[in-house]
Specification:
This protein is α+β, with helices and mostly antiparallel strands. The protein has a single domain, classed as Glutaredoxin, CATH 3.40.30. It has 2 helices and 4 strands. It has helices spanning 14-33, 79-90, and strands at residues 2-9, 37-44, 63-66, 69-70. The chain has a 4-stranded mixed β-sheet, with helices on one face. Strand 3 (63-66) and strand 4 (69-70) form a beta hairpin. The protein is globular and about 35 Å long. The N and C termini lie close together (12 Å).
């Protein structure tokens, strides 16, 4: 099972609201197509809390993290790119025991 996190500020700026919405739409589209994919929304209340998010390497939001790998930092993740990334992961041995 692939798990994604959409990391956003609890009180985002106007531009981030738009990017958040587009990323949510992308994640929903992929979840509808892939039975082995799910996602969750992670809201950050203060920038100091960013360090608590596993997989977040570039502290620019919104960010999409899939199985611990950050795919975006302040940009939109098109469904096609996410599907390609999942296909790439499917071709690799997985450790789902964790």
């Amino acid at each position: 099972m692939f798990k994604a996190k959409l990391v956003v500020m609890a009180q985002p700026c106007t531009a981030c609201v738009i990017i958040n919405s587009l990323n949510m739409e992308s994640l929903e589209r992929v979840a509808a197509q892939c039975a082995d994919f799910s996602w969750e929304l992670v809201q950050i209340t203060h920038p100091r809390r960013l360090k608590t998010v596993a997989g977040l390497e570039v502290e620019k939001l919104p960010a999409v993290i899939v199985d611990g790998e950050q795919l975006t930092a302040g940009s939109v993740l098109p469904p096609r790119r996410l599907l390609a990334f999942l296909e790439e992961l499917r071709g690799q041995p997985r450790n789902d025991a964790a």
